[in-house]
Amino acid sequence: MTDVAGPWGGLLEAARTYPSPHNSQPIRVRVIDDTTAHVFYDLDRGLPAESFGIPFGHVCAGVFLESLSVVAAAAGYEVREELTLTEMDFDSAERLHPLGTLVLSPRTATPRDAARRAAFDARRTNRRPYDNRAVASGDLAVVAGIAADGGHTFASSQDPAVVAEIIRVNQETLFDDLRNDAVHHEIMTWLRFSDEQARSSGDGLSADAMLMPGRLLRFAMGHRGMWEAPVIGRVIKSVYLRTMRGVAQVAWFEGPFAGPGDYLEAGRLFMRSWLELTARGVALHPLGTVITNPRSHARFVEAAGIAETDGRMAWMLVRLGYAKTPPVAYRRPLEEMIVA
Ligand SMILES: Cc1cc2nc3c(=O)[nH]c(=O)nc-3n(C[C@H](O)[C@H](O)[C@H](O)COP(=O)(O)O)c2cc1C
Q1: CA of 326, closest atom in ligand 1
Q2: Distance between CA 55 and CA 41 in Å, rounded?
Q3: How far does residue 332's CA lie from ligand 1's centre (Å)?
Q4: At a CB cut-off of 8 Å and minimum separation 6, what does 161 contact?
Q5: N or C, fewer C-beta in 10 Å, the chain?
Q6: What backbone phi and psi angles, to 5 degrees, belong to 183?
């Protein structure tokens, strides 16, 4: 393990499995001393091509800060945050966007902290077929409570017509995103077509994690026009949709989403919710690209009957249910997270 001052080495070693869009792992940390660290967003690992790709940088920062607080709590630390909430400028010459300063102080770990840490270690994105069961209403109510505490709404639908429409929109988002040159280029940067490539880079979306044959994925992504071709397009689409079978329920978060502070809080409560669901054995697959693709977003809010007004937005959509354990997504080693 990298030699990092005080408890930071152990905490960051654990927290580096936080989830990030396209598994790009953009959070970097400069450890100052045993109790203090500066945290940054690495703009070279961001996803600015998509509409709302930039706000999702702060969502990811919130996901990371929640992850760190969970790991720290179980190890007997509280993390105090002094955040610098400014919009990210992806054209900036300075590639590390400062997020703030973190200070550790001792606290007594509780059994609940240990349970949250266990959920953190067990959490994965589950892109497998689900088994047609909807999530128990009591489990959904817990997440609704977490959302409400932050001024957000968590809502779900088991209406087969809504679920089918959202699965369709999600699949068509992939086709639509590929038509946009900048988004296509961005996705290609993060796709890993073989296990060897995924393992050696330690980041990105591997074909295995996406449950797609690597050669088919490489062919499909490299030949965008083929998605529209009658026979091959249908094959690619059906391979993808096979992974989306058995979905009985979709859910979304809606709330204040008008600036970096809102985005970051959204990420924090998304992670908190994901861990609660993991602890209850619920599988989850974020469908974030439906949010970041404007056409798909409009279709989703219409299907779900959501009114977005006064700086509020439906900022996350997920499918959720029960499924077999999915493959693990690789992570970069701790050294890559640490800023010297
Ligand atoms: C804010 C956010 C948005 C995401 N959006 C998507 C998405 O649109 N589609 C998808 O398949 N995975 C999505 N993911 C899941 C990531 O790709 C996943 O977390 C990452 O590849 C690491 O894998 P793991 O969650 O299994 O550890 C998203 C994750 C986060 C945190």
Answers
A1: 26
A2: 12
A3: 16
A4: none
A5: C
A6: -70, -40
Do residues 150 and 199 both lie within one domain?
Answer: yes
Give residue ranges with CB within 6 A of ligand 1. Answer: 19-23, 56, 59-60, 63, 124-125, 127, 205, 286-289, 329
pLDDT tens per residue, range 230-277 = 787 888 888 889 999 999 999 999 999 999 999 999 999 999 999 999
CATH number reported for the structural domain that contains residue 264 in this entry: 3.40.109.10
**pLDDT band of 76, cuts 50, 70, 90:** very high
Shortest-distance Cα residue to atom 29 of ligand 1? 21
Q: Residue 277 has which token pair?
A: 């669901």
- Residue from 20, 172, 210, 291 whose mutation best tests the ligand 1 pocket (most atoms within 8 A of CB): 20
Largest CA distance in the chain: 62
Q: Would you report the helix, strand and coil content of the chain in percent, each value rounded to 5?
A: 50, 20, 35
The Å distance, Cα 174 to ligand 1 centre, comes to 14
105 Cα to the center of ligand 1, angstroms: 31
Note the pTM of the prediction, 2 decimals.
0.97
Write down the residue that tokens 């091959």 correspond to.
232
Residues 166 and 113 occupy one common structural domain: no
Q: Whose CA is nearest to atom 13 of ligand 1?
A: 286
The domain in which residue 100 lies consists of 8-123+331-337
The residue whose CA has the least distance to atom 20 of ligand 1 is 23
CA-based R_g, the chain, Å: 19
pLDDT digits (tens, 9 = 90+) for 229-240: 778 788 888 888
